[in-house]
Amino acid sequence: MITLKPDFCDIEPLDGHLLSTDDYASSEARWCSGCGAHTILHSVQKLCSDEQLPPEKTVFVSGIGCSSRFPHYMKTYGFHGLHGRAFPVASGVKFRRPDLNVFVITGDGDCCSIGAGHWVHAIRYNMKMVVLLFDNSIYGLTKKQTSPTSPIGTVSNTHPTGSVLPPINPIQATLGLPNVSFVAQTVDWKLAHLEATLKKAFDHPGLAFVRIVQRCPVWMRDTYEPTVKDPNAITVLHHDEGIVLGEDALKKFRHVKDHDPADIVKAREVAELVKTTTPIGLFYQNKNASRYDEYGAHNLGISVEDRIDAINSHMDKYAI
Amino acid sequence: MSTSSETINSATSTIKRDKIKEAVIEIVSDSGEGAQKCGQSLGTISAKMGNGVWTVEIIPAEIRPPARSKAGASGIRVRMGSNKITNMGDHADMVVALNEQVLYGRIDQNAYKPGTYLLIENKWATHTEETKVAYEQSLLKFKELGYIIHEIPMEKECLKYVSDARKGKNMWVLGLLCNVYDRDLTIAAEQVKSIFSKKSDEVIQSNLDLLHAGYKWANENLSMHFTIPSKPSEGEYVVMNGNEAVSLGVMAAGIELCSMYPITPATSASHALAETIESAGGIIHQAEDEIAAIGFAIGASYAGKTAVTITSGPGIALKTEFIGLAVMAEIPLVIIDVQRGGPSTGLPTKVEQGDLLSVLYGAAGDAPKIILAPATIEECFHYVILARKLAESFRSPVFVLTNANLATGVQPFPRPNIKSAWFSDPIDQSKWKEGVKAYDWDPQTGLSKRPIPGQKGGMYTLTGLAHDEESHVAYDPAINQRAAESRSRKLAALKQTLKEPIINGDQSGDLLLVGWGSTKGAIEEAVERAREKGAKVSSLHIHFMSPMEPGLKPIFDKFKKVMTVEINYSDTIGNPLITKENRRYAQLAWYLRAETLTDIDCFSNVYGQPLSPIKILQMLEKTLDLNLIE
Ligand code: SF4
């Protein structure tokens, strides 16, 4: 049952008790009914149970927004911080605590607008963590303002006659960054694909960036409903090294496109498809990208005596 | 080398030397000519000989201001004496200027008095006609002002040893000053070797040659020679600047992460750390911005690692939202603010004590936190360790407010004997006691123990939203009140452990000066000098800014007048539109008025200069209507 790689975290014996999804559930989620976030929460709880993650060694870090309430619904450690600032906090957690499983829960405003600077650098730091971007293309918690991923023409409280700026494509943006190591996209309503994506992201030895197209039936029903209903709207990226679906699951998709996730140039081309269809799957993976958390862990556990010696020899330089 | 220095030493013995108690020396030049290295070395050599020392850097605002300009004065002031020195002193006794134009800036700042020796490079004669005229006019002006001028062929002499005089003058001048002030040449040579220890043997040798040449030249050509008796110090001493002291304090506190973003004048603390922190169990993270720097540190602290972030005022402004979160979620964190002139980007390299109120109150809502202000270089070291202990015990961000003056000032102090007890305790990962909540606020003290990721049974979700004891978002109206009380109560609990400040001088009198931070030495020296002239003035210095030290009101009541002395802005009564009623007060005065309901006056300014005793004495003359200065 335990599928973690031994170097990923210290696993304590579970006393023969296997953790079920319920063991990871805290209070009842307070998202609107029909919100895509519910499905994601259950899939993450399933991932935790499948991987038997010790709850005390698992940390969910979020920013602010509908999605960012997520840590409150997990019975693990959580950090629900400031708008746009989940990345620096999560990076600080992981940098000197390599034994912790770190997840970042962020939304389109949180990640791509107020926290965009941190997003860029988190990709560059490439610490081992799973980043779930809940992208509903709207500001939900503050009751419908335009988000950086809202399609042109989105009618919102800040743009009553329709938004005018072209949206950011988070997949394209991420693929353009140095040291990018894992970029995937899925949708909250294709459960098998969502779960397979989470699993693949969790196994990745670096920062796994997953954009989850998420339904917000309250503010964005008109935008997502056609995609949800139209079997032609989604294209599955298919490859043995990608998100692998069972045959039955794969059959449910009309459009399948072969895409080798080792090829970043192709990945960028596929990301362009977003304009006409919603490609889901693994765009890019590089398991060998350099990891800053490995650097952060290199001098852990130096003895007190050695520390004192180091300080004293530094102090010698100032001695008179 | 030793032979040549012996010859010179025997030559010096024939020189008549005036015994002096102390000297204030400035070395000024355009940037990049190494004046600061020269002065720091002079300070270190003097400290090694057992003299009291204080150095202050003279820094232009730009990295490379126009050469030969008034704005370009870069350099250093060294005050050294037989006894302990606690501040930069009044006027300089001697100035070595690598060009004459830079002196104008210092003269404007009233750094010199008639009778000051000006030693000036004499290369002017070979310059263009225009420069020559400017030079002659400068010299004339300086003579009129009463300075004693010596023209020195620095460049010509240096070119005998190096091909680029810009790279040699500083060590030649060091040699000259060592001769003028009777500094031990063996210690000086050791100092030169240590500065250039990373350079090739040839570089070391040519700098030693310059040192000895400067020494010899002064011996043969100058008429003024002094000696400053010293007491070789008992016990071991170290000499460093405040940022270096902070960096050593960070390591001695056992801090495992320093997360920062470059900002003047704080950055050099992380430069000092960069060399050693990894072998002392820590790491520096240079974040993408100030906000990320503190967020990263907070993440590490939340996960049980000890963290510090080092910055200056504009960085604090950016970090404010995270500071509020650290208060709300009760995350231990040391925040070092090396204050500079403000507001906005203000005076990046210049001293100010302008962040007190903004760190006290500059957050969204009520965010009580602990604030310390070291007054000396030595305290810069020890207060970081103290801050770390307080941060963990009180689950609170703790500020250490230093400033540009402490950051770059160099002072000797007893070598700290590093103790393992100073290190933060390793994180407790044992099982969390069942039933204990994440914020199990003690009703008396507001304190609670915190669970750390990895601890079984302690799982909670930290939040910046109002929350109850279990860290659940507060929906009960009473909880916000209770939580705010608990966070505030911690300060009252800490205050109970603090002692009253000690009064320098009599316990009652006409005037009490109150200071904080780096001005302590100047204030105390001014008070002592005024008292010798019969003034009934005392001073006290506050080190704990929040919670404020206890017992102030009864102390204040024993003085006819109480006045703060600070380096920040206050209105001057009598200036256009300014009356006693609408005056804006200096920051500590403002705060103390509120704390003690006492009518507290203030003396403050924002010239970007450290306060000198003479400035405070001039103020005392006016305030007390006494004649205190000869
Ligand atoms: S507003 Fe939209 S995104 Fe937010 S909880 Fe409701 S449905 Fe979900």
UniProtKB/TrEMBL annotation, chain A:
GO molecular function: oxidoreductase activity, acting on the aldehyde or oxo group of donors, iron-sulfur protein as acceptor; thiamine pyrophosphate binding
Segments forming domain Thiamine pyrophosphate enzyme TPP-binding: 64-211
Pfam families: PFO_beta_C, TPP_enzyme_C
InterPro entries: 2-oxoacid:Fd_oxidoreductase, PFO_beta_C, THDP-binding, TPP_enzyme_TPP-bd
UniProt GO BP: cellular respiration; small molecule metabolic process
Domain Pyruvate ferredoxin oxidoreductase beta subunit C-terminal stretches: 257-294
Keywords: Oxidoreductase
Annotated protein name in UniProt: Thiamine pyrophosphate-dependent enzyme
From TrEMBL, chain B:
GO BP annotation list: response to oxidative stress
Domain Pyruvate/ketoisovalerate oxidoreductase catalytic: 32-215
UniProt xrefs under InterPro entries: 2-oxoacid/accept_OxRdtase_asu, Pyruvate:ferred/Flavod_OxRd, Pyrv/ketoisovalerate_OxRed_cat, Pyrv_Fd/Flavodoxin_OxRdtase_N, Pyrv_flavodox_OxRed_cen, THDP-binding, Transketo_C/PFOR_II
GO molecular function, one term: oxidoreductase activity, acting on the aldehyde or oxo group of donors
Recorded superkingdom: Bacteria
Keyword terms, alphabetized: Oxidoreductase
Residue span(s) of domain Pyruvate flavodoxin/ferredoxin oxidoreductase pyrimidine binding: 249-476
PANTHER family from the UniProt entry: 2-OXOGLUTARATE OXIDOREDUCTASE SUBUNIT KORA, PYRUVATE-FLAVODOXIN OXIDOREDUCTASE-RELATED
NCBIfam families: OAFO_sf
Protein name as annotated: 2-oxoacid:acceptor oxidoreductase subunit alpha
Species the sequence originates in: Marivirga salinarum
